[in-house]
Amino acid sequence: QVQLVESGGGLVQPGGSLRLSCAASGSIFSSNVMGWYRQAPGNQRDLVATITRGGTTNYADSVKGRFTISRDGAKDTVYLQMNSLKPEDTAVYYCLAVYSNGGYWGQGTQVTVSS
Question: Which residue of 37, 54, 93, 98 lies most exposed, with the fewest beta carbons within 10 A?
């Protein structure tokens, strides 16, 4: 059973930075795609960014130029560097890992951007 462990969330002031990490375990294969989604209270879960095993990235328009997704294939770990954070980035951030047998979600980590 694949498990995802997220870390790095917290409280930050507008304009600040945070780095999220998500480590996958339990699979003998590396994931095909890893990514981050976020969900604010009362909203649906939305795409933030994804990265394929080959390194192809995709970003939501709202985070382009501010967030950077990367991965360590050897560790099956994905990172999200978040810069120039805005109050509207406040949400629970969820990690997703997609394998040939399906997708798995992390438990979520809270990111709050507030002065």
Answer: 54
For the stretch 48-79, pLDDT in tens is 999 999 999 999 999 999 999 999 988 899 99
Whole-number Cα distances in Å, 30 to 2, 3, 5, 99? 11, 13, 15, 8
109 contact partners, CB below 8 Å, separation of at least 6: 6, 7, 8, 9, 20, 92, 93
Residue-wise pLDDT tens digits, 81-102: 999 999 999 999 999 999 988 9
